[in-house]
């Protein structure tokens, strides 16, 4: 049994390992770990209190892959639900689709009984957004940010190195040798609305195959999208390369 995760999942490694020790499937261990990080209000890169987009809206991305079958589920740019990883898993288990975005993902989450939430950003997180934007943006532009006809000009704020990046990645192998991998993120801080990164794109930010291994990405998602990085890493393992190579 094995769990490999990004450091922000430290706090839940014991709970996730307990799932595997009790004979639970890798998919459950991945979901337990990621849900805990999504619920952590101090992590500003995943789930509740993630840093929002340029408009101050929290848009979440997540995916999960079952290494036994390469079945996968994902949601992207989803607003108003705290646990995108669980909605992604439901997509995998319930629909003949892999990826739902925006309003469709939100509709599906409601149909599956997930609680819609309006309180996913606290005052401090909103204040961080306002402080960062108004450092560069004139106050009158900020006050009407949603109506700006050239919002694209402000996307340069999204490369704010202090705040832009991080994600939770969890890969688990259970007692049967089955592998699952999950990724969840609020994406780049202050991103352009509707921007989708690598995390919910199977093969880019997340991939698992029982026969060879799994990979999850963090960092500039645009790079992993361009290079199909997670799939490429697993193909490398299939070809006999080691992880370092
Ligand atoms: N890869 C994520 C994204 O681009 C962010 C990160 O992992 O830092 O949305």
What would your notes on this structure say?
The radius of gyration is 18 Å and the shape is globular. Strand 2 and strand 3 (71-78) form a beta hairpin. It has helices spanning 13-21, 26-39, 84-94, 102-111, 123-136, 139-143, 221-227, 229-238, and strands at residues 2-5, 60-66, 71-78, 99-101, 168-173, 179-185, 206-209, 213-216. The chain is α+β, with helices and mostly antiparallel strands and 245 residues long. Helix 1 (13-21) runs antiparallel to helix 2. It contains eight helices and eight strands. Strands 1-5-6-2-3-4 form a six-stranded mixed sheet. The structure holds aspartic acid. Aspartic acid is lined by residues 165-167, 185, 187-188, 197-199, 205, 217-221.
Briefly, what is this?
With 245 residues, the protein is of the alpha+beta class.
Q: Cofactors and ligands present? A: aspartic acid
| Beta-strand content bin | 15-25%
Shape: globular
Order of helices and strands: EHHEEHEHHHEEEEHH
Main sheet makeup? 6 strands, mixed
The helix fraction, in percent, is 25-40%
Radius of gyration: 18 Å
* Straight-line distance between termini: 24 Å
Structural class: alpha+beta
Q: State the total count of DSSP E strands.
A: 8
* Rounded mean pLDDT score: 95
- Uncertain segments are none
Q: Which sequence of strands runs across the widest sheet?
A: 1-5-6-2-3-4
The tally of helices reads: 8
């Amino acid at each position: 049994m094995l769990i490999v995760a990004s450091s922000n999942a430290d706090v839940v490694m014991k709970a996730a390992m307990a799932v595997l020790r009790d004979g639970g499937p890798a998919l459950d261990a991945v979901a337990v770990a990621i849900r805990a990080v999504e619920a952590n209000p101090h992590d500003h890169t995943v789930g509740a209190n993630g840093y929002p987009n340029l408009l101050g809206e929290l848009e979440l991305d997540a995916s999960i892959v079952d290494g036994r079958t390469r079945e996968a589920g994902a949601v992207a740019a989803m607003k108003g639900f705290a646990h995108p990883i669980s909605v992604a898993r439901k997509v995998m288990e319930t629909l003949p689709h892999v990826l739902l975005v925006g309003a469709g993902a939100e509709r599906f989450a409601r149909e599956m009984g997930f609680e819609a939430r309006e309180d996913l950003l606290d005052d401090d997180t909103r204040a961080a957004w306002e402080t960062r934007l108004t450092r560069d943006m004139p106050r009158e532009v900020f006050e009407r940010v949603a109506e700006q006809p050239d919002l694209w000009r402000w996307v340069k704020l999204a490369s704010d190195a202090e705040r832009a990046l991080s994600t939770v990645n969890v890969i688990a192998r259970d007692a049967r040798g089955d592998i699952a991998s999950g990724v969840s993120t609020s994406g780049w801080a202050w991103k352009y609305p509707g921007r989708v990164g690598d995390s919910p794109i199977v093969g880019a930010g997340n991939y698992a195959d029982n026969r060879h291994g799994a990979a999850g990405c963090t960092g500039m998602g645009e790079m992993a999208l361009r290079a199909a990085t997670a799939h490429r890493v697993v193909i490398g393992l299939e070809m006999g390369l080691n992880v370092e190579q």
